[in-house]
């Protein structure tokens, strides 16, 4: 198992996702002789997991079953142990696209935090790219390094335990893109510029408050970044539901001049019967959920051009 290469069979040491439902899943480390408790009972790693195919339905000791999934950056984002606030797939997908990341890209990131974004960047830039990620909190930097190793992506990432606002990224003129998710990104803008390649590149800064965005935009302007633009990404989810709608009353097609008063009376009776007995129709429709996830943060993008 590796986060950048799919393997068919579950092996000792793998990180695997136990899927109970779309809203209920968690990550485990598969270990010879190990066991995992679920609400459907225990899963014995040696018997139920090792040697089985990813995607298998596994029956737990109380008779209920779960699926065991191969990990992906998207599944890791919803199952990882939180050490910090993290970025979610809605913002991540926009970041990857707007930074124009692709296999072989060189990227600088700070802070590493819980590594949610780092995993998505690494999957995108593999097999020949490199991520330089800077985190000033020692334990977080060490934990991220340990997870990158466990997930067999450590050859694609360099973790640095330092203050990006004082020491920068530790690389100069190598990056195609820079990403900032720190409380004072404006202090790291000049280091971002020097980390980017001479011929230029893209930068993105994520901030929850508009005051942070304003200061960052000013710093970007001072450092000659161009095309500065800020977005807020809101996800509107649609639910498929059965909807009942009243049928329109289109009448009976008009009256015939030869209709007798008795005919007209009968037609009127038929109309009122159809309103009360057959007046609605049911169909499937996509309807937006009444509640939606709110503000996460603003994404400010800009370009460094060859000066
Ligand atoms: C919100 S978290 C980043 C989350 C990350 N983007 C993710 O998706 O998991 C911010 C991190 O930046 C780190 N940080 C804050 N200021 C920093 C600085 N000046 N230099 C390096 N790291 C910094 C914090 O310790 C924290 O771990």
Describe what you observe in this structure:
The protein has 307 residues and is of the alpha/beta class. It has 2 domains: 15-71, Vcp-like ATPase, Chain A, domain 2 (Roll); 75-233 and 299-305, Vaccinia Virus protein VP39 (Rossmann fold). Helices cover 28% and strands 28% of the residues. It has helices at residues 45-49, 73-79, 89-98, 116-125, 138-150, 164-167, 189-195, 210-222, 261-278, and strands at residues 15-21, 24-29, 35-38, 41-44, 57-59, 65-69, 106-110, 130-134, 157-160, 177-180, 200-207, 226-231, 238-246, 280-288, 298-305. It has a 7-stranded mixed sheet with strand order 9-8-7-10-11-15-12, sandwiched between helices. Strands 2-1-6-5 form a 4-stranded antiparallel sheet, with helices on one face. A two-stranded antiparallel sheet has the order 3-4. Helix 2 (73-79) packs antiparallel against helix 4. The protein is flat. The two termini are 44 Å apart. The model has no long low-confidence stretch (mean pLDDT 93). The structure holds S-adenosylmethionine. S-adenosylmethionine (SAM) binds at residues 84-87, 110-111, 113-117, 134-137, 140, 163-165, 181-183.
Distance N terminus to C terminus?
44 Å
Under CATH, the homologous superfamily of the largest domain reads Vaccinia Virus protein VP39
- Compute the CA-based radius of gyration: 28 Å
Figure out the total of helices: 9
Helix content: 25-40%
Provide the domain count.
Answer: 2
What CATH architecture of the largest domain do you see? 3-Layer(aba) Sandwich
Under CATH, the topology of the largest domain is which? Rossmann fold
Q: What is the CATH class name of the largest domain?
A: Alpha Beta
Query: Class by helix and strand content?
Result: alpha/beta
Q: N-to-C SSE series?
A: EEEEHEEHHEHEHEHEHEHEEHEE
Q: How many beta-strand elements?
A: 15
| Ligands present | S-adenosylmethionine
Mean pLDDT across residues? 93
Coarse morphology: flat
Question: What portion of the residues fall into strands of 2 or more residues?
Answer: 25-35%
Largest β-sheet summary: 7 strands, mixed
- Parts with pLDDT < 50 across at least 5 consecutive residues: none
Order of strands, main sheet, comes to 9-8-7-10-11-15-12
């Amino acid at each position: 198992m590796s986060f950048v290469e799919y393997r068919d069979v579950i092996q000792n040491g793998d990180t695997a996702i136990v899927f109970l439902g779309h809203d209920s899943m968690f990550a485990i480390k598969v270990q010879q002789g190990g066991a995992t408790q679920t609400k459907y009972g225990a899963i014995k790693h040696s018997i139920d997991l090792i040697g089985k195919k990813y995607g298998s339905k596994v029956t737990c000791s109380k008779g209920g079953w779960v699926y065991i999934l191969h990990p992906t950056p998207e599944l890791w984002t919803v199952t990882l142990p939180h050490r910090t606030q993290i970025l979610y797939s809605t913002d991540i997908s926009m970041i990857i696209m707007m930074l124009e990341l692709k296999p072989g890209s060189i990227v600088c990131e700070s802070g590493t935090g819980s590594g949610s974004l780092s995993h998505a960047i690494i999957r995108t830039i593999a097999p020949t790219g490199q991520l330089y990620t800077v985190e000033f909190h020692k334990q977080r930097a060490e934990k991220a390094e340990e997870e990158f190793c466990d997930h067999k992506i450590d050859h694609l990432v360099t973790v640095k335990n330092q203050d990006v606002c004082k020491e920068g990224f530790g690389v100069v003129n190598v990056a195609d893109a820079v990403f900032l998710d720190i409380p004072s990104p404006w202090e790291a803008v000049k280091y971002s510029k020097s980390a980017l390649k001479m011929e230029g590149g893209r930068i993105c800064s994520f901030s929850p408050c508009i005051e942070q965005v304003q200061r960052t935009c000013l710093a970007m302007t001072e450092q000659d970044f161009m095309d500065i633009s800020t977005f807020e990404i809101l996800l509107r989810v649609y639910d498929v539901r059965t909807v009942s709608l009243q049928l329109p009353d289109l009448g009976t097609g008009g009256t015939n001049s030869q209709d007798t008063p008795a005919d007209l009376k009968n037609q009127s009776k038929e109309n009122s019967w159809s309103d009360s007995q057959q007046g609605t129709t049911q169909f499937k429709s996509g309807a937006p959920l009444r509640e939606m996830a709110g503000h996460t943060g603003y994404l400010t993008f800009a370009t460094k051009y060859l000066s």
